[in-house]
Amino acid sequence: MKIEALTLPEVLLITPARHGDARGFFSESWNQKTLQNAGVNLPVFVQDNHSMSHKVGILRGLHYQSPPFAQGKLVRCGRGCLFDVAVDVRTGSPTYGKWVGAELSYENGRQLWVPPGFLHGFVTRTPDTEIIYKCTAHYDRESDGGVLWNSLGIDWGIDNPILSEKDEKLPEFANWASPFQFGAV
Ligand SMILES: Cc1cn([C@H]2C[C@H](O)[C@@H](COP(=O)(O)OP(=O)(O)O[C@H]3O[C@@H](C)C(=O)[C@@H](O)[C@H]3O)O2)c(=O)[nH]c1=O
Protein backbone atom coordinates (compact mmCIF):
# COMPACT_ATOMS: atom_id res chain seq x y z
CA MET A 1 0.00 0.00 0.00
CA LYS A 2 1.56 3.24 -1.17
CA ILE A 3 0.29 6.57 0.18
CA GLU A 4 1.43 9.84 -1.40
CA ALA A 5 0.50 13.40 -0.45
CA LEU A 6 -0.12 15.53 -3.54
CA THR A 7 0.46 19.26 -4.05
CA LEU A 8 -2.56 19.81 -1.81
CA PRO A 9 -1.15 17.87 1.14
CA GLU A 10 -4.50 16.73 2.59
CA VAL A 11 -5.40 15.04 -0.70
CA LEU A 12 -3.85 11.58 -0.77
CA LEU A 13 -3.11 9.26 -3.64
CA ILE A 14 -3.38 5.70 -2.38
CA THR A 15 -2.22 2.68 -4.33
CA PRO A 16 -3.24 -0.58 -2.66
CA ALA A 17 -1.03 -3.60 -3.27
CA ARG A 18 -2.31 -6.15 -5.76
CA HIS A 19 -1.42 -9.77 -5.14
CA GLY A 20 -1.40 -11.34 -8.56
CA ASP A 21 -1.56 -15.02 -9.34
CA ALA A 22 -2.73 -17.28 -12.16
CA ARG A 23 -6.37 -16.43 -11.34
CA GLY A 24 -5.99 -12.66 -11.46
CA PHE A 25 -5.33 -10.48 -8.42
CA PHE A 26 -6.43 -9.81 -4.85
CA SER A 27 -6.36 -6.34 -3.31
CA GLU A 28 -7.49 -4.74 -0.07
CA SER A 29 -9.41 -1.82 -1.54
CA TRP A 30 -10.06 -0.29 1.90
CA ASN A 31 -8.26 -0.86 5.16
CA GLN A 32 -9.11 1.45 8.06
CA LYS A 33 -5.56 1.50 9.40
CA THR A 34 -4.05 2.85 6.21
CA LEU A 35 -5.56 6.34 6.32
CA GLN A 36 -5.10 6.41 10.09
CA ASN A 37 -1.40 5.66 9.64
CA ALA A 38 -1.17 8.41 7.02
CA GLY A 39 -2.35 10.94 9.58
CA VAL A 40 -5.88 11.39 8.28
CA ASN A 41 -8.53 11.88 10.97
CA LEU A 42 -10.00 8.43 11.00
CA PRO A 43 -12.94 8.64 8.63
CA VAL A 44 -16.12 6.71 9.26
CA PHE A 45 -17.63 5.80 5.92
CA VAL A 46 -21.41 5.58 5.93
CA GLN A 47 -22.28 5.38 2.22
CA ASP A 48 -20.73 3.81 -0.88
CA ASN A 49 -21.53 5.28 -4.30
CA HIS A 50 -21.17 3.68 -7.71
CA SER A 51 -21.88 5.38 -11.01
CA MET A 52 -21.23 4.53 -14.63
CA SER A 53 -20.76 6.98 -17.50
CA HIS A 54 -21.26 5.69 -21.04
CA LYS A 55 -19.17 8.07 -23.09
CA VAL A 56 -15.66 9.48 -23.10
CA GLY A 57 -15.70 13.12 -21.93
CA ILE A 58 -18.57 12.90 -19.44
CA LEU A 59 -17.77 15.30 -16.62
CA ARG A 60 -19.53 15.10 -13.25
CA GLY A 61 -18.71 17.99 -10.92
CA LEU A 62 -17.61 20.01 -9.26
CA HIS A 63 -19.71 18.90 -6.30
CA TYR A 64 -19.91 19.22 -2.51
CA GLN A 65 -22.35 18.93 0.36
CA SER A 66 -22.54 21.82 2.84
CA PRO A 67 -21.82 21.28 6.53
CA PRO A 68 -23.05 19.54 8.62
CA PHE A 69 -23.35 17.03 5.76
CA ALA A 70 -19.88 17.69 4.28
CA GLN A 71 -18.44 14.53 2.74
CA GLY A 72 -14.95 13.12 2.55
CA LYS A 73 -14.67 10.68 -0.37
CA LEU A 74 -12.34 7.79 -1.08
CA VAL A 75 -12.55 7.43 -4.85
CA ARG A 76 -11.49 4.66 -7.20
CA CYS A 77 -12.20 3.55 -10.73
CA GLY A 78 -13.90 0.17 -11.11
CA ARG A 79 -13.79 0.02 -14.92
CA GLY A 80 -11.98 2.10 -17.51
CA CYS A 81 -10.11 5.31 -16.76
CA LEU A 82 -10.98 8.76 -15.43
CA PHE A 83 -9.32 11.99 -14.34
CA ASP A 84 -10.32 12.82 -10.79
CA VAL A 85 -10.08 16.34 -9.32
CA ALA A 86 -10.19 17.85 -5.83
CA VAL A 87 -10.33 21.60 -5.13
CA ASP A 88 -9.61 23.16 -1.74
CA VAL A 89 -12.52 25.53 -0.95
CA ARG A 90 -11.98 26.00 2.79
CA THR A 91 -12.10 29.74 3.43
CA GLY A 92 -8.84 30.80 5.09
CA SER A 93 -6.87 27.82 3.79
CA PRO A 94 -3.39 28.60 2.42
CA THR A 95 -4.34 26.56 -0.65
CA TYR A 96 -7.85 28.01 -1.10
CA GLY A 97 -9.00 27.69 -4.73
CA LYS A 98 -6.14 25.37 -5.71
CA TRP A 99 -6.83 22.06 -7.40
CA VAL A 100 -5.12 18.75 -7.85
CA GLY A 101 -5.94 15.88 -10.19
CA ALA A 102 -4.97 12.26 -10.71
CA GLU A 103 -5.70 9.63 -13.32
CA LEU A 104 -7.52 6.71 -11.71
CA SER A 105 -8.05 3.56 -13.70
CA TYR A 106 -8.97 -0.07 -13.30
CA GLU A 107 -5.43 -0.86 -14.42
CA ASN A 108 -3.53 1.39 -11.99
CA GLY A 109 -5.86 0.65 -9.04
CA ARG A 110 -5.20 4.09 -7.54
CA GLN A 111 -7.54 5.82 -5.12
CA LEU A 112 -7.90 9.50 -4.28
CA TRP A 113 -8.80 10.66 -0.77
CA VAL A 114 -10.81 13.88 -1.15
CA PRO A 115 -11.34 15.38 2.33
CA PRO A 116 -14.42 17.34 3.47
CA GLY A 117 -14.09 21.00 2.42
CA PHE A 118 -12.93 20.08 -1.09
CA LEU A 119 -14.95 20.13 -4.32
CA HIS A 120 -14.90 16.86 -6.22
CA GLY A 121 -15.34 16.08 -9.89
CA PHE A 122 -14.10 13.80 -12.64
CA VAL A 123 -14.07 13.35 -16.39
CA THR A 124 -14.16 9.98 -18.14
CA ARG A 125 -11.33 8.97 -20.45
CA THR A 126 -12.82 5.65 -21.62
CA PRO A 127 -16.35 4.47 -22.57
CA ASP A 128 -18.51 2.79 -19.90
CA THR A 129 -16.36 4.07 -17.05
CA GLU A 130 -17.31 3.12 -13.51
CA ILE A 131 -16.43 5.11 -10.40
CA ILE A 132 -16.85 3.79 -6.87
CA TYR A 133 -16.42 5.94 -3.78
CA LYS A 134 -16.87 5.68 -0.07
CA CYS A 135 -18.38 8.73 1.68
CA THR A 136 -18.12 9.99 5.26
CA ALA A 137 -21.65 11.46 5.30
CA HIS A 138 -24.98 10.41 3.86
CA TYR A 139 -26.46 12.07 0.79
CA ASP A 140 -28.54 15.11 1.71
CA ARG A 141 -30.37 16.62 -1.25
CA GLU A 142 -30.78 20.02 0.44
CA SER A 143 -27.03 20.29 1.12
CA ASP A 144 -26.03 19.31 -2.41
CA GLY A 145 -24.14 22.05 -4.28
CA GLY A 146 -21.54 22.68 -6.93
CA VAL A 147 -19.29 25.03 -8.84
CA LEU A 148 -18.99 25.31 -12.62
CA TRP A 149 -16.33 22.93 -13.96
CA ASN A 150 -14.41 25.49 -16.05
CA SER A 151 -14.35 28.42 -13.61
CA LEU A 152 -11.22 27.38 -11.70
CA GLY A 153 -8.59 26.98 -14.42
CA ILE A 154 -8.50 23.20 -14.10
CA ASP A 155 -6.76 21.39 -16.93
CA TRP A 156 -9.32 18.64 -17.57
CA GLY A 157 -7.61 17.60 -20.81
CA ILE A 158 -10.86 18.26 -22.73
CA ASP A 159 -12.61 21.41 -23.98
CA ASN A 160 -16.23 20.34 -24.50
CA PRO A 161 -17.23 17.80 -21.89
CA ILE A 162 -20.70 16.31 -21.61
CA LEU A 163 -22.45 17.71 -18.53
CA SER A 164 -25.76 17.10 -16.77
CA GLU A 165 -28.33 19.91 -17.01
CA LYS A 166 -27.76 20.53 -13.31
CA ASP A 167 -23.99 20.85 -13.72
CA GLU A 168 -24.33 23.21 -16.72
CA LYS A 169 -26.16 25.69 -14.49
CA LEU A 170 -23.76 25.69 -11.55
CA PRO A 171 -22.36 29.06 -10.42
CA GLU A 172 -18.89 30.19 -11.39
CA PHE A 173 -16.29 30.01 -8.65
CA ALA A 174 -15.94 33.82 -8.56
CA ASN A 175 -19.69 34.21 -7.88
CA TRP A 176 -19.96 31.49 -5.27
CA ALA A 177 -19.68 31.69 -1.47
CA SER A 178 -17.97 28.73 0.14
CA PRO A 179 -19.77 27.23 3.17
CA PHE A 180 -16.48 25.73 4.42
CA GLN A 181 -14.06 27.24 6.95
CA PHE A 182 -10.45 26.13 7.23
CA GLY A 183 -10.05 24.18 10.49
CA ALA A 184 -13.78 23.58 10.89
CA VAL A 185 -14.25 20.63 8.53
C1 LIG B 1 -25.05 11.92 -5.07
C2 LIG B 1 -26.37 11.14 -4.93
C3 LIG B 1 -27.35 11.23 -5.88
N1 LIG B 1 -28.51 10.54 -5.74
C4 LIG B 1 -29.54 10.65 -6.80
C5 LIG B 1 -30.00 12.07 -7.11
C6 LIG B 1 -30.30 12.01 -8.59
O1 LIG B 1 -31.61 11.54 -8.79
C7 LIG B 1 -29.33 10.96 -9.13
C8 LIG B 1 -28.11 11.54 -9.83
O2 LIG B 1 -27.52 12.48 -8.96
P1 LIG B 1 -26.37 13.47 -9.48
O3 LIG B 1 -26.76 14.02 -10.80
O4 LIG B 1 -26.11 14.44 -8.38
O5 LIG B 1 -25.14 12.47 -9.66
P2 LIG B 1 -23.61 12.83 -9.95
O6 LIG B 1 -23.54 13.99 -10.90
O7 LIG B 1 -22.91 11.60 -10.29
O8 LIG B 1 -23.14 13.38 -8.53
C9 LIG B 1 -21.97 12.92 -7.91
O9 LIG B 1 -20.87 13.55 -8.56
C10 LIG B 1 -19.60 13.24 -7.99
C11 LIG B 1 -18.55 14.08 -8.71
C12 LIG B 1 -19.55 13.37 -6.52
O10 LIG B 1 -18.54 13.75 -5.92
C13 LIG B 1 -20.75 12.88 -5.77
O11 LIG B 1 -20.72 13.28 -4.41
C14 LIG B 1 -22.03 13.28 -6.42
O12 LIG B 1 -22.21 14.70 -6.27
O13 LIG B 1 -28.95 10.17 -8.01
C15 LIG B 1 -28.74 9.73 -4.66
O14 LIG B 1 -29.82 9.08 -4.53
N2 LIG B 1 -27.75 9.61 -3.71
C16 LIG B 1 -26.58 10.28 -3.80
O15 LIG B 1 -25.69 10.13 -2.91
TrEMBL record:
Active-site residue list: 63, 133
Q: Where is this site: Participates in a stacking interaction with the thymidine ring of dTDP-4-oxo-6-deoxyglucose?
A: 139
Q: Which InterPro entries match?
A: RmlC-like, RmlC-like_jellyroll, RmlC_Cupin_sf
Which is a Gene Ontology cellular component entry for this protein?
cytosol
Molecular function (Gene Ontology), one example: dTDP-4-dehydrorhamnose 3,5-epimerase activity
Q: Which residues form a coiled coil?
A: none
> What does the protein in this record do?
Catalyzes the epimerization of the C3' and C5'positions of dTDP-6-deoxy-D-xylo-4-hexulose, forming dTDP-6-deoxy-L-lyxo-4-hexulose.
Query: Any idea what this protein is called?
Result: dTDP-4-dehydrorhamnose 3,5-epimerase
The organism encoding this protein is: Paracoccus amoyensis
